[in-house]
Design brief:
heterodimer; A: alpha/beta; 2 domains; five-stranded parallel β-sheet; B: Jelly Rolls; Heat Shock Protein 90; five-stranded antiparallel β-sheet; rod-shaped
């Protein structure tokens, strides 16, 4: 796993580094420290990473701006900040976790676990926006406007209620990490907003598909069909 | 507290508005009343000019005869008046009584002459005041002011001769002989009997009581000299009024008239000097102005004292004009405050100009000025109380701001997080760090409610903060002081704030650094320069969090402690950023 730490307090940056090394052990392939937003931004735009620890106040600079910009990126962000009052806002922009300062190893482990285990999603701090990269800018899309998502290799295709589609840099799994519980993975390649499902339709005796309220049909995997039958 | 303050301010504003309106109404009534009285006074059926008067010197009994021609007598003009007569002299003139009005009227003579006299109507003796004599020792001084009726049967249509036989051995050289000679319709309700005495008495009583009141104010508040000046202002005007009204109220013989005029002149002069002086002291305009103001008064008064009547009008006007100049400066300096006093002065000045020839009645208008000054005091007291409340609120806000900065999440939680790391990795350092943090809290709780602290305390605060930041950034930071006078006071927390600002805007995490604090004194000005290393952050597309409280805190503290006498400037050098604060302590 490739991690960067964006933190201007040298002791805290060292602490995060130490804790990550303790928690991830061999899984950690690289870890880099940045004390300002500019350097961190330059790095993530030309390197692939999996996780960013981000402080929200770096010598007066607003870390939130880096957060907003990089929510469109392929990696996850964990905010580590003294400003606990900004946690809700951070979750709305789709951070994986918000760790208030001061923090313990246990709390950092809990945050990293979220990345490795998809089942830690909660509705408590539901993501409200996802951002996608456009040519020169970032477009922010309301989660409520997403009908379903389709995996496309390391990317995801977002199908919006207005019929448009967007390509997101995060994989389907990573997007699912931060999306609210109403999004369910009906198929290896499809994640659907369940409140938009109108009916289930049998294609054959074992194959089913979900009919969405705009008439689009999305395949359902066999294991998911079984799961749904139990409900 | 803020809501109460607004309510307090609104209620008082309403009260003041209604009070001001009532006051303006009273002023209007008093001024118009005083003015209409002057008109009534001029309304005489028969009057004469001195040019009609003829004069002859010596004792000749037949000069009372109407048949004696006085064509050869010199006319009684100003030049003759100034002559000192050592013997009896005669003044006579003729009057015409129209047939229609004759014998239907009671005619009253109202006479004020500086001398003993006998009055003859044609050749009949009409009235005697004192005893006329060629020799000083035989003369009995007559009353300065008398009024008597002319028998109705004497008032026949045609020409009549009025003859005065006068001796005035007790008169001083230059003193005017004839003050008033009016022949007018007799009126029981005349100004000289009832209303004419009531209003002056009332005005004089008010003046006296206010004078005494201000003496008591001075006794209770010794350092305020404007109170004692104002009481003497009242007493001088009281003297002016009482002596001026004495002929109407009690009367005296003409030999006392010189004393009366000197007293009136002196009390008027004292008033004219005290008036601008009062405003100077009240508004603490400084000794420079005192010299500027007092010089012309003294010069003019010395110059004009010879002619008391003229002099009075002149130095009264000068006194008021100077007061108006002073108050204009005061109003300008105080952004429009105290304009009530200026208004009162302008009204009184108008009164002086309108009564130029007859200033005896001036003190009728004076209570208006007193009321305006008192009103101005009330308004100022109200304003001071309001400002006092604002200052209190501001002070507690600043205290809260200072304390809040100390417990703001970014500072305290980052410090705690750093301590946790040190506890796990460098326990010894963590103990020192905790101790420094505790020192910072203790120092802040000691100073937060003080508007100023000793410069050494501020330096201690800064060094402690540098120690904390040193632990956090794992660097050594130092503060070098030069020219610091340890007993000097400084508005609380301003250098500490500059230090915090430096950490907010610079990336100090990479090397050991030195900060500098310098103090210089020039006369009453204190210059404090704080130099911080410039370690600019990389040019970044990312904006800054708007904390913005640092500079405004410094400005508020300086305003609180130094009023408007402070300035702050910043200079960017190659490697340093220098903030210079210059202030002059409130006196």
């Amino acid at each position: 796993m490739k991690i960067i730490i964006v933190e201007d307090e040298i002791l805290l940056a060292q602490r995060l580094q130490r804790l990550c090394q303790n928690i991830l052990g061999n899984k950690l392939s690289s870890i880099k420290l940045f004390s300002n937003l500019g350097d961190a931004d330059d790095y993530v735009s030309s390197n692939t990473i999996d996780l960013m620890f981000l402080d929200l106040n770096l010598q007066g600079q607003d870390g939130f701006q880096l957060l907003k910009k990089n929510m469109a990126g392929a990696f996850h962000t964990i905010v580590v900040s003294a400003y606990a009052n900004r946690a809700i806002e951070a979750f709305e922009y789709g951070v994986l976790d918000f760790v208030p300062k001061p923090f313990t190893e246990k709390r950092i482990k809990q945050a990293i676990d979220r990345l490795e285990n998809n089942d830690t999603r909660t509705d408590q701090h539901a993501t409200k926006y996802v951002s996608v990269k456009k040519l020169d800018s970032i477009e922010i899309i309301a989660v409520s406007n997403i009908l379903y998502l389709k995996g496309a290799g390391n990317y995801s295709e977002l199908f919006l209620k207005d019929g448009e589609t967007r390509l997101h840099d995060k994989s389907l799994s990573r997007l699912l990490d931060i999306l609210p519980n109403k999004f369910d993975r009906l198929h290896k390649s499809f994640v659907v907003a369940m409140d938009c499902v109108v009916s289930l339709e049998a294609v054959s005796s074992s194959d089913y598909q979900a009919v969405l309220n705009n008439g689009v049909k999305v395949p359902i995997s066999r294991t998911k069909v079984k799961e749904l039958r139990h409900l | 507290m803020t809501i109460n303050l607004i309510k307090y301010n609104n209620i008082n504003k309403r009260l003041l508005k209604s009070f001001c309106f009532t006051l303006l109404l009273i002023t209007y009534l008093m001024v118009s009343k005083s003015y209409s009285q002057e008109n009534e006074f001029d309304d005489q059926p028969l009057s004469y000019s001195y040019q009609d008067f003829a004069l002859s010197i010596g004792e000749k009994p037949n000069w009372i005869s109407p048949t004696i021609s006085f064509k050869d007598w010199p006319s009684f003009d100003n030049e003759v008046r100034k002559h000192t007569y050592n013997e009896v002299y005669w003044v006579r003139w003729t009057i015409d009584i129209a047939s229609s009005s004759a014998q239907k009227r009671d005619l009253e003579y109202y006479i004020s002459i500086v001398g003993s006299y006998e009055v003859f109507w044609d050749e009949k003796l009409l009235f005697t005041s004192g005893q006329v004599s060629n020799f000083k020792e035989n003369e009995v001084p007559g009353e300065i002011q008398t009024a008597f009726l002319t028998p109705k049967e004497w008032i026949t249509p045609g020409t009549h001769q009025i003859t005065f036989k006068i001796s005035s051995h007790h008169r001083r050289k230059g003193q005017q002989v004839f003050r008033h000679v009016y022949l007018k319709d007799y009126n029981l309700q005349s100004r000289h009997t009832s209303l004419g005495s009531l209003i002056p008495s009332l005005a004089l009583s008010i003046t006296l009581i206010i004078g005494i009141y201000f003496v008591t104010l001075f006794i209770s508040e010794r350092e305020n000299y404007s109170h004692i000046i104002f009481s003497f202002l009242c007493f001088s005007l009281f003297t002016y009024g009482v002596v001026g009204e004495w002929p109407h109220l009690i009367g005296y013989t003409y030999d006392w008239h010189y004393i009366k005029e000197i007293t009136v002149g002196l009390s008027g002069l004292v008033f004219s000097i005290l008036l601008p002086l009062f405003f100077l002291f009240k508004h603490q305009l400084g000794s420079k102005w005192f010299v500027i103001i007092s010089m012309p008064i003294v010069a003019f008064s010395l110059n004009t004292f010879a002619d008391i009547n003229m002099g009075n009008s002149l130095y009264w006007s000068i006194g008021f004009a100077l007061s108006i100049i002073i108050m204009s400066i005061v109003v300008r300096k105080n952004n429009g405050n105290y304009w009530w006093e200026l208004l009162g002065l302008l009204i009184c000045f108008t009164g002086v100009v309108m009564n130029w020839q007859d200033l005896e009645n001036f003190f009728l208008i004076f209570p208006v000025l007193v009321i305006f000054i008192l009103l101005s005091n009330v308004i100022q007291a109200h304003r001071d109380k309001y400002n006092g409340m604002i200052i209190k609120i501001k002070a507690s806000q600043l205290e809260a701001q200072l304390l809040r900065r100390n417990i703001q999440p970014h500072f305290i939680l980052n410090s705690l997080a750093s301590i946790i790391e040190l506890v796990e990795t460098e326990p010894d350092q963590s103990v020192e760090f905790i101790s420094a943090l505790a020192d910072e809290f203790r120092l802040f709780s000691e100073i937060a409610n003080k508007p100023t602290i000793k410069l050494t305390q501020e330096v201690e605060l800064c060094r402690n903060h540098l120690a904390i930041m040193g632990f956090r950034h794992q660097q050594n930071y130092d503060l070098i002081c030069s020219g610091i006078e340890k007993d000097d006071d400084i508005p609380t927390g301003i250098i500490h704030t500059l230090l915090e600002n430096a950490f907010t805007h610079n990336d100090y995490s990479n090397e050991n650094l030195t900060f500098k604090l310098m103090q210089k004194k020039e006369n009453e000005h204190v210059h404090i320069s704080f130099e911080s290393p410039l370690q600019s952050q990389k040019e970044s597309k990312f904006g800054f969090l708007s904390t913005g409280t640092g500079t405004s805190f410094i400005e508020s503290q300086l305003k609180q402690c130094c009023g408007d006498r402070w300035s702050i400037s910043n200079a960017k050098n190659v490697n340093t950023w220098v903030s210079t604060i210059t202030y002059q302590k409130k006196t």
